[in-house]
Write a structure and sequence with these properties.
CATH class: Alpha Beta
Number of domains: 1
CATH topology: Aminopeptidase
Oligomer: single chain
Largest sheet: 8 strands, mixed
Order of helices and strands: EEHHHHEEEHEHEEH
Number of helices: 7
CATH superfamily: Gcn5-related N-acetyltransferase (GNAT)
Length: about 180
């Protein structure tokens, strides 16, 4: 199922053939350094991958989901969109790309598409994004799209992160001024 598209990208549920690229996004040291996150074991990879196979829209409303990012017209997964619900029950967005697809504008394009999807399809009232302070690329993207809310220490990942948050009302004002 395709959840949303941007000018160059399609975001859809994962299929079995996507596993090798999915695995790369959870084991590549350079990708994980910017999140930060420890590499997943084979068992953890298979569990997480299986949980996100063949998703439907209702799943995004109910639980954490990983969805595939593709350049339109291709079948090679280039990244993941993460539909998250944090410990406070808030909608949280995330994304990550394979290293070969960094610095091509896909992060900004995906983040804008995610916000649009959350506010129009999921009907979220507020969306947050937490980012590791060393992830300069994602910081630049979020600083352009969402107001800064706070900086905090993430005990689970043992790192300092920044939280950005955007309400639907603020987003509606933004798109009236600058359409997607």
């Amino acid at each position: 199922m395709i959840f949303f598209e941007t000018k160059r990208l399609s975001i859809r549920s994962l299929k079995s053939a996507d596993f090798p690229f999915f695995k790369e996004l959870f084991t590549d040291a350079e990708v994980l350094r910017l999140i930060p996150q420890k590499a997943l074991s084979e068992e953890e990879l298979h569990t997480r991958f299986t949980r996100s196979l063949n998703l439907e829209l209702q799943h995004i409303h109910e639980r954490k989901c990983d969805c595939a990012i593709f350049k339109k017209g291709t079948e090679e997964l280039i990244g993941l969109v993460l539909f998250l619900i944090n410990e406070d029950g808030e909608r949280e967005m995330g994304y990550r790309f394979r290293k070969a697809y960094w610095k091509k504008g896909y992060g900004m394009e995906t983040a804008k598409g995610l916000l649009h999807f959350y506010f129009t399809e999921v009907n979220a009232k507020r969306v947050i994004a937490d980012v590791y302070i060393e992830n300069k690329g994602s910081l630049r993207i979020l600083e352009q799209l969402m107001p800064f809310e706070k900086e905090f220490f993430n005990e689970k990942e043992e790192c300092t992160e920044r939280r950005y948050a955007l309400t639907k009302a603020h987003w509606l004002k933004q798109i009236q001024q600058t359409p997607l």
